[in-house]
Amino acid sequence: MSVNQSAPPVPPFEQPQPIYPGYHQSSYGGQPGSTALPTHYGAYNGPVPGYQQTPPQGVSRAPPSSGVPPASTASAPCGQAAYGQFSQGDVQNGPSSTVHLQRLPGSQQFGSPLAPVVSQPALLQPYGPPPTSGQVTAQLAGMQISGAVAPVPPPSGLGYGLPTPLASASGSFPNSGPYGPYPQGQALPRSQAQGPPGVLPPQRSAPPLASNFTSPASVGPRMPSMTGPLLPGQDFGGPPVSQPNHVSSTPSQALTPGTQITGHPGPLPPMHSPQQPGYQLQQNGSFGPARSPQANYGSPYPATPTFGSQPGPPQPLPPKRLDPDAIPSPIQVIEDDRNNRGSEPFVTGIRGQVPPLVTTNFLVKDQGNASPRYIRCTSYNIPCTSDMAKQAQVPLAAVIKPLASLPPEEASPYVVDHGESGPLRCNRCKAYMCPFMQFIEGGRRFQCCFCSCINDVPPQYFQHLDHTGKRVDTYDRPELSMGSYEFLATVDYCKNNKIPSPPAFIFMIDVSYNAIRTGLVKLLCEELKSLLDYLPREGGAEESAIRIGFVTYNKVLHFYNVKSSLAQPQMMVVSDVADMFVPLLDGFLVNINESRAVITSLLDQIPEMFSDTRETETVFAPVIQAGMEALKAAECSGKLFIFHTSLPIAEAPGKLKNRDDRKLINTDKEKTLFQPQTGAYQSLAKECVAQGCCVDLFLFPNQYVDVATLSVVPQLTGGSVYKYACFQVENDQERFLSDLRRDVQKVVGFDAVMRVRTSTGIRAVDFFGAFYMSNTTDVELAGLDGDKTVTVEFKHDDRLNEESGALLQCALLYTSCAGQRRLRIHNLALNCCTQLADLYRNCETDTLINYMAKFAYRGVLNSPVKTVRDTLITQCAQILACYRKNCASPSSAGQLILPECMKLLPVYLNCVLKSDILQPGAEVTTDDRAYVRQLVTSMDVAETNVFFYPRLLPLTKSPIENTTEPPAVRASEERLSNGDIYLLENGLNLFLWVGASVQQGVVQSLFNVSSFSQITSGLSVLPILDNPLSNKVRGLIDSLRAQRSRYMKLIVVKQEDKLEMLFKHFLVEDKSLSGGASYVDFLCHMHKEIRQLLS
Ligand SMILES: [Zn+2]
């Protein structure tokens, strides 16, 4: 059994889709086609998938993909008991993250003494990078000199760099922001920048000394005998002062300081260019402009004598500065990939191909492997052995988005109908028929590519093989030639062996004082009247099959009978919230078209009915309970849309108290801020999952509402949380309504179970995302929409084979919007390697960061954030040190050498480390942190990419008639010109920054005022002016919003205005006020860590 290494002939699945007899055309994603349900399902002798795993028939050994879990998971309690672990802070039923945190003791993988640098050539031979290998070397000039300088303590806010073993090994970044205690309940969320100015942090404190860069300078020659951990005061690593010969030896190639070298063909020494396609190297493999060893090399920003944004006094012994232009630039990498890979379609026929970056626009042609829109991997070439994997420390993970929406040019997965017999599966491991299955014995049997079991081909599926051993109908069958497709599921795949009813949506509206006062209820009811015409439906359907119901609540719940035969809606009040029941069945869930008049009447009446309410208290758990019971009574799955304003303090199950305590930040108890304060919501979530009840929560808090607890049910049911702090209709209605419309209309799979099977040798061991697990293999999703991803980590349980590679199959069983039960299958084949260099050539840093962020964000539930940060830093250093040791060309220890495809790992990782979860600034509330933490858990790779490294777009640099998106600049203050305006976005926030010296004409064109001083700071809407600049900027804002899954509210920020503080938080290459390191500083720190590991 082996997987095709080359692209098979182009199958006849070119777009537009032809109609294949026997296949139901997919109606998913708006494609019209036959959606007729088979009238009956025949018996299927497979197990009831997902819900319980029955032993395969006639099988003597367990399939590898469902084998004995590792010790850490084998003991995990199942079923009910598994919920107990949530109280320990673990959302999923995988191995606890403590296990992960323990797996990375410093230097563990590097315990064996390393060969000294001089012997590296010999050592390197087996892994010598082939000519195509890319690697990046950075000469950290500042780290190589001034060994004589006494270590300078880092300035406040920059915790690493102390020459003590503790600091250098842990890389701690103590949070020592300049701000005092944050007034509880008076949070100014980042998204509410127009809020009261009084709560804003003061202006930036005085710039610290530039001494932050002198800590690396303390790196001196290491004593040869020093092998253990360093003692305080001891130096380590680093070549002697006389080392920097590779700086001064390259005068002939000196580039203009500040020139971006990445990707620019320049005058390069021929001896090195073959090594670095696409990435130009200087002599000695260092990149960046060569400079003479002077303190203040010419800089593109003459006013800034040193790098970074903090000019400082000259050092006693002038160290050479690391030029920010000389270190790997995310902008350049993104541009290069767009230029190199954006024009050709990505054809998935070849195993182990690394797809273009998520920031590149490209088309995908499915020729046997799932599109990267569905699955992205941290590496497309995985080590054959677990020893190699441990040595490299590169996490092996896949970020899977099973219901991802596709661009119109790409076809949705075909729906295959095998009729009564259902989909064909391996008898042993239950993997579904896929292109990697090998047909043998003239087509009468097939060997499973996952477990090697030989299976009989049922007579109705038999087909002859051609001379190459391929079935002659291969290209007529999606399941034999495509990476992604769907099967119609038979009744055996349905809960209780019953065809499911169409799902229902229940709108549950808080009508307490706050909700009424802000105008929320009126706005929402008005919107629902028209929005309900846009419920999701199957492609060809005239109307949505989804039924709807309404509940309002404060301390008690009000159910509404909106039966079409009624003249007026009827309200039923349930005040016994401790024992929630649904007071009516008939008339609660209705078809919108049948009951339109009654529903319209109800939506008109609700704001009036409660207009003079004085009730300020709310319940929350009983609301979810009621919605779930209603779905249960109607025997259907569905979604609750809950619109909620306050901490539920009314006497009821799930009652909460205000436990916000910012004093816990940076203590061992900080994790409790992320944990739910009661177990009641986990139990409720479990019931919801069993019912297929997904919960979407819209929060409108004026103060702390304990998002960590309120988001438990949405998180465990595959739902979404939206938060609009200090909601005001006039300022926030566009954002709220835009999110609501998208949320209500988006395609959702209900009552879903996802299973990832793998070929022998690796196994899915851990899962991250918004879902529930009651065993170690099945990801249960009450609902799953096209924005949600599930990240899966793999571990070796045996040796892999280079020839056969490694295979993944993700199977998602779900109920469609019309109530059809389906299986969506995604297959992906990866290469396997025996050389570490192959691993490092086929990694995807954006996906690595997605995994590492999720790993870290789960880690904070159990461990102090400092421990989590240290773990990330250590892992990153180990990844890069392993490359340096095994794959890089010999070079001076003073050089930082990064693998080409991981050259952005340090900058991106630093952004994760500086994020509000791991290093909160003073303006970030506990609720903000809990909110962002759960958002990131379900993000796809494109979303984490821009979230951690925001896009900064200059608006007046390119010609005004140029309507394409302007090229981004690096997220650093020194890239801002005060004569320009910029847009910055990270998927959640959107800023328009206006420089103080911007031309008056520009100000007039955009803001319709005559001078900079007249621009209203905090403005959230640009005036609609009919001039080219205004049209262009507003068009660009619309286009950025359209690219993101949540509406980004605009905030206009003026240079030197106090709101600028919020904006600067997103300039992630700079040092942050909360103590996060600048990119340059972090790179130096990472270099130090790597050298320590290697010495
Ligand atoms: Zn099998």
TrEMBL record:
Gene3D superfamilies: beta-sandwich domain of Sec23/24, Sec23/Sec24 helical domain, Severin, von Willebrand factor, type A domain, Zn-finger domain of Sec23/24. GO terms for biological process: COPII-coated vesicle cargo loading; intracellular protein transport. It comes from Dipodomys ordii (Ord's kangaroo rat). Keywords: Cytoplasm, Cytoplasmic vesicle, Endoplasmic reticulum, ER-Golgi transport, Membrane, Metal-binding, Phosphoprotein, Protein transport, Transport, Zinc. Residues 962-1035 form the Gelsolin-like domain. SUPFAM superfamilies: beta-sandwich domain of Sec23/24, C-terminal, gelsolin-like domain of Sec23/24, Helical domain of Sec23/24, vWA-like. It is found in: Cytoplasm, Cytosol; Cytoplasmic vesicle, COPII-coated vesicle membrane; Endoplasmic reticulum membrane. Residues 749-832 form the Sec23/Sec24 beta-sandwich domain. The keyword Zinc applies. It holds the Pfam family Sec23_trunk. This is Protein transport protein Sec24C. It comes from the Eukaryota. Residues 845-944 form the Sec23/Sec24 helical domain.
